[in-house]
Amino acid sequence: MTNLKSTNSKSIAVLGAGAWGTGLASIAEANGHQVSIWSRYGSETLAEVVENADAIVSAISMKGVREVATQLHGLPIPPKAVFVTVTKGLEPETISTPSQIWQETFPIHAVVVLSGPNLSKEIEMELPAATVVASRSKDAAELVQLVFSSSRFRVYTNSDPLGVELGGTLKNVIAIASGVCDGLQLGTNAKAALVTRGLTEMVRIGNFWGAKTETFYGLSGLGDLLATCNSPLSRNYQVGYQMACGKTLTEILTHLQGTAEGVNTCRVLMQRAKQRNISIPITEQVYRLLEGEVTPQQALDELMLRDIKPEYSY
Ligand SMILES: NC(=O)C1=CN([C@@H]2O[C@H](COP(=O)(O)OP(=O)(O)OC[C@H]3O[C@@H](n4cnc5c(N)ncnc54)[C@H](O)[C@@H]3O)[C@@H](O)[C@H]2O)C=CC1
Ligand SMILES: O=C(CO)COP(=O)(O)O
Fold first, then answer.
1. Is 171 among the catalytic positions?
2. Which residue in 214, 189, 201 sits closest to 285, CA to CA?
3. Separation between Cα atoms, residue 58 and residue 193, nearest integer Å
4. Ligand 2 pocket test: which of 176, 182, 224 has the largest number of ligand atoms within 8 Å of its C-beta?
5. Residue 16 Cα to ligand 1 middle (Å)
């Protein structure tokens, strides 16, 4: 077994000084690594922050990933540097995942996806949590595992980066639906049904994309669903909860602290599912709700009154 204390100090560049970027920076720093954080509002340049980095951690929200990757592309990046992406979103124009953008921009560097049930407020309070680091490169995943592993943060490796990334991304849409469920006070049975059928929907989309089914039953799929579908700390859950309480999406997003990626992800998924004829009924109702086409109650009725069918039809 690896002794966590034996890790050599690494140079870690964190891009994005939001809730999760600063949270991950604190974990790495507490583990004895040299951490620099880059923010578009800060005084340090990207070039200064990534110079000599062993790992470059992108904690940029989806809308900024391509722009930051392009800015970095023109800079001298150490060949040893591993890119770590923690963004949970999809690019609307290309339907690319963040790791695909990083890999496309830096084809010779290893890319690692870090995702799991990691509500940053709880991590900030040093409550225990676990996560997954996944990569096509076993060495890169193990390096990132050592950088972040601690007595408060248990990090597992995984060899299905696409599944791990999609788990964290797709669950955001189900978290919005769960917020609606709680806002309407539909009860525990309804929540259990929603989360379970939500997972089926995630597996269906993930399989279509080429991810492994079992990955969705791990920390980055089921684990993250359980966390975000049951916690008012989740911004995505808050979007659904507040819509069920009568607020408009614009009002909610104006006052929300940080990013609720599920809003954009839901739109991208609907576009993809329509093109490919994939059945995603929960996502479809979340989409219609976000677009103002149905009320929360109508979305519920539409889901309950769908044609009856067998439980399994991936
Ligand atoms: N907060 C959490 O609990 C967790 C968040 N995540 C994911 O991590 C990502 C970041 O989340 P948060 O830190 O919570 O969001 P945040 O909204 O607090 O921070 C986002 C960061 O991205 C930066 N950014 C956005 N567009 C940019 C651009 N064009 N150029 C440069 N920088 C740009 C912002 O300045 C900010 O520093 C999201 O995809 C989220 O889903 C993942 C796990 C946990
Ligand atoms: O992904 C998260 C926890 O794992 C954070 O969820 P929210 O983005 O909904 O706050």
1. yes
2. 201
3. 34
4. 224
5. 6
Q: Residue 109: its pLDDT value, please?
A: 98
Q: Is the CB of 240 under 6 A from ligand 2?
A: no
Residue 151 is classified by DSSP as S
Structure tokens at 181: 């469920």
Q: What is the pTM of this model?
A: 0.97
pLDDT along the chain (314 residues), means of 10: 65 98 98 98 96 98 98 95 98 97 98 98 98 98 98 98 98 98 98 98 96 98 98 98 98 96 98 93 98 98 95 73
Cβ(165) – ligand 2 distance below 6 Å: no
Residue 4: the pLDDT is 58
Residue linked to tokens 């996502």: 283
- CA–centroid distance, 19 to ligand 1, in Å, is 7
Task: Enumerate the H helices of 210-245 as residue ranges.
Answer: 224-229, 235-244
Give 310's Cβ-side CA count (13 Å radius): 3
d(CA 163, CA 227): 18
Domains and CATH numbers, the chain: 4-159 (3.40.50.720), 162-304 (1.10.1040.10)
Which pair of structure tokens corresponds to residue 275? 């093109």
Question: What distance in Å separates the CA atoms of residue 215 and residue 166, rounded to the nearest whole number?
Answer: 9
User: Element (H or E) spanning 200, and its range?
Assistant: helix 188-209
Q: What's the ipTM?
A: 0.99
